[in-house]
């Protein structure tokens, strides 16, 4: 069988074909047996209008082709064309390309002019073409309507997966950028998710799938999800996206990194720390109680041909797109940075709060820390409190049914600090100035879901303002009560800060009797018309409650660094950068020591046009501030038990569907609006982005001959196709810092790049900037030399260590044993085994050391350390430096008297100058 890209010699036998004719035929029946669609086949022979059934019935279309010797037929559901003589799929645009005197449709690397289409699967310039051909297909039977089997109280997982599956930027990435779905990290959850998404969105999808592989993987990542207990869907979402980020993250190339803000320009003293992996970060968020199939480049449908996404109907190539198709393209066109890190803006001193804001420099890419506090953790009262984290996100609901509007300790201005090596009783000697260079990371998860918030705390005595920029993955919003709404609305109309008070203060100190009374009250409220009880709570009210200014006074006074004492203060936060997809979590659950309850108040939310402009900082770089709803997860039941379902809008036909485990049902949007929302996914909306994509399609359809072809990152083109704000062109996903192809990516480079005609490249470059321009792909020789040198270094280090350690094990009674921090040793081990490309920093024994009154350093009791020989210590110290040195020596009396082994072992810690 020949290459599917070779022009079919039978294309000349096709008569005039229009989209209207095919749509009309698709609504008919088989002319032989009368069976209706889907998957009817229409003959394309000149003057033949036969329509027959396919293999799922009597296959009259094949019988017609054999009897009449009509070779070409088109599937009226998928609009894919099959040639019986060539026994392969063919593409109608090849018929157009065969007539002009331009380059041959068959592409070869030696051709000077660029081909009419690139042989890779994802053709970036076919966005509207995709939307046109596939939208007509999906008007009959839209894809993505696949249920998921309940594996035993797994509705929380099914609802979350369906909500994510209907987020176009993420789903398109896994369908079109399969070459980037590569990981050596276990349990390879990204591949399980890619396989699941491919099955759900396949044209020949089953009625439901069984997400066994993904369920098993998430249980390996977090043991909390093991067993068959009921779980929280928001916790699952955070765990899943955190693991996907970890598996897909890539280091940022220096040329693509944002510039740091000039702290001198605002008279501020800002301390920033480099990026580190999420597990190393410390994070507190605004209103926080706690705080990511095979990678073979599969196209949509799993087995898409190289030109599958191209226009299939030739006479539509230059035709203007109707308003109806424009709306479909908007729904179909599935449309910035994670820095897997933390950056700290410590207290910036300014004369006044307004001066701080006026002098605050703007960033095109604001600092975005990547961390998350563990769930089920009480909130700190001090903004300098630290806790370990893995992703930045808003708080989980477990400890906060309502967040405070004012005077709320949990809403303290977030302060995120890195690991501290300071010992409380005495300072361990410095390990040296040389530190491991922290690497910044990004992934598709961070590109889609990460936004940033600017938090400020102002001292009302000296007007000193401390600022912090933090990254959020979602916003956990309180549900204000009647009194809280009155405060909010009063503050809005009077343009003054809300008075101190907590959202739902009545919940703060509930006993059993108060809980029963409140439960009865809420039941009565639910049965009472809203005009009698009070105003309806809207999502905008919840956002206003979250971003309301808080007064810090009384027991919650602010510790001012300038005043050196507790002072009254005000804290507030604004959005600095909006994410492409905004995830909102409504805090409906409150868990106390003795009981738990659920807040069942209805929250009205818009299906379109959610505007976040009132909550933006004036330094915000996001141009698009309105969002449309993609999906909503609902919980039916109580705090102790219940059931999760999801309502999602199908991106192809715009209809809303209810996903209840394996059952999928079309519903009216009114039912969605009346749902008891728990987690909502909103997507940026932009008509300008749709028009931009249509303009690019028009440029590509011109097929202007050019002498240069330009390679562009497939991942960025996926952003262009699906993001409202794709940002500058970023070719660093397939380029190294030297401008070549990293040797480890060259063997699958076709999955990473797409070729664009010169006129399309120039338009995109002038519109978005970025780059760099790439006209030739080559393996970077500098990187090759560095890789070889690194492999040699690793081999020498690990061989030397094994040799020295064997000698140490053979020694019966070593007179001295050196201690080394296992945390540092694990970093070194990951490096020499090739699991981490970055070598560890200096040896850091400060975590296992403690200082005695005499000034000597000894081993800390219960410390996580390993034992090595003196020779091994000297060898590692010569390579990496650091310290302090901790040696355990056996006393001479112990060596001479074996009976003393039954007594107390005498250990003396000796400190040597490093």
UniProtKB/TrEMBL annotation:
SUPFAM superfamilies (alphabetical): Cysteine proteinases (SSF54001), DUSP-like (SSF143791), RING/U-box (SSF57850)
- Domain DUSP, chain residue ranges per copy: 687-780, 789-892
Biased composition range(s): Basic and acidic residues: 259-279, 316-326
Q: Which of UniProt's keywords are assigned here?
A: Cytoplasm, Cytoskeleton, Endocytosis, Endoplasmic reticulum, Hydrolase, Metal-binding, Phosphoprotein, Protease, Repeat, Thiol protease, Ubl conjugation, Ubl conjugation pathway, Zinc, Zinc-finger
One BP term from GO: endocytosis
Region: Disordered; residue ranges are 252-438
| Signal sequence residues | none
USP domain: residues covered: 146-685
Output the InterPro entries linked to this UniProt entry.
DUSP-like_sf, Papain-like_cys_pep_sf, Pept_C19_DUSP, Peptidase_C19_UCH, Ub_carboxyl-term_hydrolase, USP, USP_CS, Znf_RING/FYVE/PHD
Protein task: Deubiquitinating enzyme that removes conjugated ubiquitin from specific proteins to regulate different cellular processes.
Subunit architecture: Interacts with VHL, leading to its ubiquitination and subsequent degradation. Interacts with CCP110. Interacts with DIO2. Interacts with HIF1A. Interacts with ADRB2. Interacts with USP18.
Q: What is this protein called?
A: Ubiquitin carboxyl-terminal hydrolase
